[in-house]
Amino acid sequence: MDHAKAMRAIVTTGYRVLAKQCHPDAGGSHEDMVTLTAAKDAVLAMLGANVPPSEEPRRKAPKPAQWTDKDWVEIDDVTVVYESARAILCQVGDDEEEIWIPLSQIHDDSPVKEQGDEGTLVITRWLAKRKGLVDG
Question: How far apart are CA 119 and CA 106, in angstroms?
Fold first, then answer.
């Protein structure tokens, strides 16, 4: 086994172990799986592996009739550092911590939603709270 193949096997094996914990059927959440899969795709891409595009089309956050502007929040000073088929990896402000945001939770009209974008990201309020981007 060559070095590159061994590294890809390690990433894939680790992904499978964590997927058993993160999958919604195992007590995890959809968001956990999106984050895990996006991270795996990013690592494989860095290793130069051919990462197949997602079979799933890019999902947009649902906009039920009962949703209002209060269900969304604007996060300023966001830079998208990586984009996978299901999520974007963002850096907020001067904080060096990076945060995965599922594409399904980004408002259609958000000016920030693709790799290289900088500015204001519009996401669901519940996710912003969960990620610690806004106060309770």
Answer: 14
d(CA 38, CA 13): 15
Burial 17-33 (b: 16+ CB within 10 A, else e): ebbeebeeeeebeebbb
Q: At 62, phi and psi to the nearest 5?
A: -65, 150
Q: What is the reported pTM?
A: 0.58
Cα–Cα distance, 60 to 77 (Å, whole number):
22
Tens-of-pLDDT digits for all 136 residues of the chain? 777 788 888 888 999 999 899 888 888 888 888 888 888 888 887 777 555 544 444 455 555 555 677 889 999 999 999 988 888 999 998 888 889 999 888 998 899 999 999 999 999 998 999 888 988 6
